Amino acid sequence: MSEKSTHKIQSFVRRSGRLSAGQKFGLNELWSQYGIDPVAENTIDLDSIFKNKQAVILEIGFGNGDSLLQMAINEPERNFLGIEVYEAGVGRLINEAYKHGLTNLKIIKEDAVEVLKNNIADNSLVGFQLYFADPWHKKKHHKRRIVQNEFMHTISKKLINGGFVHMATDWEHYAEQMMETLEAHTHFKNTTTAHNYLSRPERRPITKFERRGQRLGHGVWDMIFTNEK
Ligand SMILES: C[S@@+](CC[C@H](N)C(=O)[O-])C[C@H]1O[C@@H](n2cnc3c(N)ncnc32)[C@H](O)[C@@H]1O
């Protein structure tokens, strides 16, 4: 195969820029406490990284981390694993988690698609959250959207029977694609009536990108499905 055909399509663009002192502190000084470095194809032992057997919720693309932080504070009886490639957001979330003394949050700073495939055990997650994923507006970029059949198939495998998928977006076309992808999968069942969306449930704090969308007059589509294997 040519180099071009083996090149992986990424669902993100790496954002860079100067890091604040707090973000640097989070990334450097607190990494050993909150960060997880997946090793090659080794499965991460979730009970051992969290030092308990609480249910684990995975969130991909937490951005600046404020909404994930709030959830982890609100739900101490659950563990949260966040995956994000945006360094400033990772640094900020770790710094804030430390200030709040959180022990139920861990962070991975890698491409979540790869981490899911290589390092997360099947039947190990109680929930999967994806809030305001990059919408990749242009048709020629739709292949970069993270929600694809194969990706949701992997999510279904990683979730326990009865686990949940919660996604939200402010881009109607992407909402429809998410809905269709979930409906096409035999394991996923809509928690509301068929082909219907939800309003933001109370447990999901408003996110930074959601606020930006609101300022631009965008709508918001939430969907929660269960995984019935
Ligand atoms: C539009 S932002 C939304 C951030 C946040 N959820 C919010 O609502 O404010 C999407 C985020 O997903 C991250 N992302 C996209 N694909 C990813 C991947 N494959 N692995 C890790 N992070 C990813 C991006 O870096 C970006 O920060």
Layout of strands and helices, then pairs:
Elements: H1 3-6, H2 21-28, H3 31-34, H4 46-50, E1 56-60, H5 66-74, E2 79-83, H6 87-99, E3 105-108, H7 112-119, E4 125-131, H8 149-158, E5 159-169, H9 172-184, E6 188-190, H10 208-215, E7 221-227
Parallel strand pairs: 1-2, 1-4, 2-3, 4-5
Antiparallel strand pairs: 5-7, 6-7
Helix pairs in contact: 2-6
The structure holds S-adenosylmethionine.
Q: What would you say this structure looks like, in words?
A:
- By secondary structure, the chain is α/β, with parallel strands linked by helices.
- The chain has one domain: 3-Layer(aba) Sandwich (Rossmann fold), CATH 3.40.50.
- The chain has helices at 3-6, 21-28, 31-34, 46-50, 66-74, 87-99, 112-119, 149-158, 172-184, 208-215; strands at residues 56-60, 79-83, 105-108, 125-131, 159-169, 188-190, 221-227.
- β4 (125-131), α8 (149-158) and β5 form a beta-alpha-beta unit.
- The longest helix is centred in the middle third of the chain and has 13 residues, at 87-99.
- It is globular and about 45 Å long.
- The N and C termini lie far apart (36 Å).
- Residues 1-5 have low confidence and may be disordered.
- The structure holds S-adenosylmethionine (SAM).
- S-adenosylmethionine is lined by residues 11-12, 60-63, 83-86, 89, 111-113, 131-134, 146, 207-210.
- The site of S-adenosylmethionine (SAM) has 23 residues, from α7 and α10.
